[in-house]
Design a protein that fits this description.
Oligomer: single chain
Number of strands: 15
Helix content: 10-25%
Shape: globular
CATH architecture: 3-layer Sandwich
Bound molecules: FE2/S2 (inorganic) cluster
Structural class: mainly beta
Number of domains: 1
């Protein structure tokens, strides 16, 4: 399937799902939403150990809903927060930076802020490109090959180039240093979840007819390497 067909296929079948997706606004930051707290575990169901993630590691997990994919990345270096990010509708927010023993771990919604390309079991047109060198602009970024939006995962996933109108939504992570475990606790920024469920309602219902796509998640959510989750990772 070529890029254009992929985008078209993903946008076919718009449905009418209303409501849902709301979280509890965090005091002092109108863009952060506390959501269900879940622990991130590996394919075998045991907790992911933050200290054991390799630099450049790229995982897919689903949060805050069973159908909405996210990236978990270890960028391999301490990541300071970034102030003054803005959503498409002009809301300002601050991204808190990396977590974990090296403050190098970040998570973002993997739903592109342009036309919502996202990893599926069949294909992913969006992925993190491991850095080849410091002056290589094609790497060290999250690239969406559908229409070439590029995001900086070290800076709150702000848009570096392309048609995306806002950063990828950030996933708020809580690091339990005593257990070396990671929890997802909320979202930050301009999320696409309502549009995602509207645009892909038919496909989601065909893929999982009995699943409540917006019901509660289990306490433990599996995070799989992108190459395991998606059969075909498209690079550009
Ligand atoms: S869907 Fe268009 S750039 Fe990602």
């Amino acid at each position: 399937m070529d890029r254009r067909c992929f985008v078209k296929a993903c946008t076919v079948g718009a449905g009418l799902i209303a409501g849902g997706g709301a979280g509890l606004a965090v005091a002092g930051d109108t863009s952060a939403h506390r959501r269900q707290r879940v622990r991130l575990v590996g394919a075998d169901g045991t907790p992911l150990r933050a200290a054991q993630l390799a630099a450049g590691a790229q995982y897919v997990f689903h949060y805050p809903f069973a159908a909405t994919p996210c990236f978990l990345l270890d960028l391999g270096r301490p990541l300071a927060g970034r102030n003054g990010l803005a959503t498409e509708d002009g809301r300002r927010y601050d991204w808190p930076g990396g977590v974990g023993p090296r403050r190098s771990i970040v998570a973002y919604s993997a739903i592109c802020a342009h036309m919502m390309a996202h990893p599926t079991r069949v294909v992913s047109y969006i992925s993190y490109r491991t850095p080849r060198s410091e002056d290589d602009p094609e790497t060290g970024v999250i690239s969406c090959c559908a229409e070439n939006s590029v995001y900086d995962p070290a800076a709150g996933a702000q848009v570096l180039s392309g048609p995306a109108p806002q950063p990828l939504a950030a996933i708020v992570l809580d690091y339990d240093a005593g257990r070396d475990e990671l929890h997802a606790t909320g979202t930050l920024g301009g999320d696409m979840f309502q549009r995602f469920f509207t645009e892909f309602a038919v496909r989601l219902s065909l893929e999982n007819p009995s699943r409540d796509e917006r019901g509660p998640l289990p306490d433990d959510v599996r995070a799989l390497p992108l190459e395991t989750f998606s059969a075909n990772v498209v690079l550009c």
